[in-house]
Amino acid sequence: MTIESIQPRLKRVFAQVLGLEESAVSDATAPDNTPQWDSLAHLRLVMAVEQEFDIAIPAEQVMDMVSFKIATLMIEELTS
Amino acid sequence: MLPPSISPFFEGFDGSLSSYQALSRKLEPAMAELPEVRVALLASCTIEVAKAFLLVEGARRGLRFTIWSGPYGQIEQQVLDAGSELYAFKPDVVFILARLEDLAGSQMRGFISLDVAGRAELRQSLAKLAQQVALSLRRHSAASMLWSAYVTPRLPGVEGAPGLFGAESLAAFTSSLNVATATEIESVSDARLFDLPAVVARCGTKRWHDERMSFLARMPFSGEGFAALGTCLARAIRALRVPPRKCLVLDLDNPMWGGVLGEAGLGGIKLGDTFPGNAHQALQRAAQGLRNRGVLLAVASKNNREEALNALEHHPDMILRPADFNAIEIHWEDKVTSLRRIAKTLNIGTDALVFVDDNPAEREWVRKLLPEVAVIELPSSVVDYAVAIEHSEWFDAAVVTRDDALRVAMMSRQTERQALQENSGSLEEFLNALQMRTQAGPVNAETIERVVQLLAKTNQFNLTTRRHTRADLERMIAGGAVAVWMRLADKFGDNGLIGVVIGVPETGEGGLWRVDSLLLSCRVIGRGIETALLGLLAKQAFARGGRVLTGEFLPSERNQQTKDLYARHGFEPKDSAGQFWTKALEPLENFPIPAYLDLTYDD
Prior knowledge:
The complex is a heterodimer.
Chain A: H1 3-18, H2 39-53, H3 59-62, H4 68-78
Helix pairs in contact in A: 1-2, 1-4
Chain B: H1 17-27, E1 36-43, H2 50-60, E2 64-69, H3 75-80, H4 85-88, E3 93-97, H5 100-103, H6 105-109, H7 116-140, E4 144-148, H8 170-185, E5 191-194, H9 196-203, H10 205-208, H11 211-217, H12 223-241, E6 247-250, H13 261-264, H14 277-292, E7 296-301, H15 305-314, E8 327-330, H16 335-346, E9 353-356, H17 360-369, E10 374-376, H18 385-391, H19 402-412, H20 414-423, H21 427-433, E11 437-442, H22 448-457, H23 470-478, E12 482-490, E13 493-505, E14 512-520, H24 529-543, E15 548-552, H25 565-568, E16 572-573, E17 580-584, E18 599-601
Helix pairs in contact in B: 1-2, 2-12, 7-8, 9-12, 14-18
């Protein structure tokens, strides 16, 4: 998948899981600047992203998905 | 089941994990008017993720869940400590999920080296542990307890051939452990097993487990698994809290059989052991199953009456016959009129009806004029009809007692009784002609389940409509309350347990006793049973030092017919609202028990 086709869907998932407006989600969205993104929310995010894009993020990478930008790149790689 | 006030929130909800999260957040502040159920979750692993799913699935069923989840691995600590966060939360329902891997990991891993005696010992100690937790919970709280039945643990390498269900296999052990645990736990009031293996089956074992999350976060279930758990748990909790609907009303031409009787004729309708006739039979069998556990059946159909009755009576492949229906409305009048008449005939409210009709226009008409009637949305294919009734959840009942089945046989004789009444001159004559035999006794372990059920679902002849749970009632009795049940049989059959009275001693001087609850099953109204119940309570209260009995009437939408009960029994009003009434217990002869009831009292 291309970054362009991933981003709108991923924005919706981030907004729904973290309780943000879609417009508030950007490449820079990360646990450091998003108080809602705690460890439990991280697990919820991983599960929701996997379902949305029908992918399985390997265990070794689950904890690496630490920003919206990185999530986009991970999905791009896993769906290529 | 989805309340109109929150249904707009479900628009656009697609069941995905992210939409559950978003919806749960939106619903929380919007559910103030729904009845609250406080649900505590305790598990041997991380379970907090289940919250959003459970909240949404509860809302879908008309309940506002307030959910607390304990830290993982602290089941015993939370339950045993009277000062724990669990009890501070004041739960109505406590759900416990203990995985065998966490609870007895080392024994499970060494399973293969345990001999028969060792396995029996392990089984018994685990079953006892669950019972101990239930007993401890019961000491500190009246909450219902759901303990998850065990799922066969996945222990790579432990078993030789995982595909075989040998008598010594891990799967066989888990099954027998579940039976042993259910037996131990059910000795504690309002404690039951939750069918977690059924949740796993619904989700699929492969999709249920998430090995990654298990290793990363002690969260062994997948997102889909949590969604399935939330759905099944919400359904189980609703069954614990909401009594089932009382009557299934069926249309005839498709669903009961395929085709239109008026056009195809008796020989042309589709009903039999090949498709699609067998799918229509399956629907009839589903209705028959409900009938066997006490649900009333009725017909509301637009057909030529004689022709339709003839088909029901004589079609060789018909499963349900006219005698299986407690009310039959076959004519060309509208369905709303039919439903109202059915409710009246059966002496129940229209809010106790569930309506099945293949015609969307009829469904819409009923929804509009009788929003309290549950309307089942029939699936497009007949093969799914039978399952749709089960899936509707309207007849879910946490407890099914033998009296439920009795009631159906009894209702069928109700018409005979009415005929007798019409042929008898005076009421006295009628009551004598019924040849009633009544039996009463103190509420105990054998009768409490049925008594609580009656408290939960009696609306019309119910002075206070207090819905005590089993634990509430046990606590009241332990505190000195007198609770008496009554059974009634007459020449037409056994009516089962049909009446309850509960009296509570008031603190202070003067020997004051209060009638906390007084109720009768609606089918035995008008036979003087309430007089007998008051008489029984008066006698027992007097023997315990009572001198004055206070009656109470709390009006509800449905109990207007009982508002003059205390006036009829010589009580004096204590307020202008007609809520409290009193009467001296001396002399006891002022509380007579009608002789025609032929009462025996079992101590």
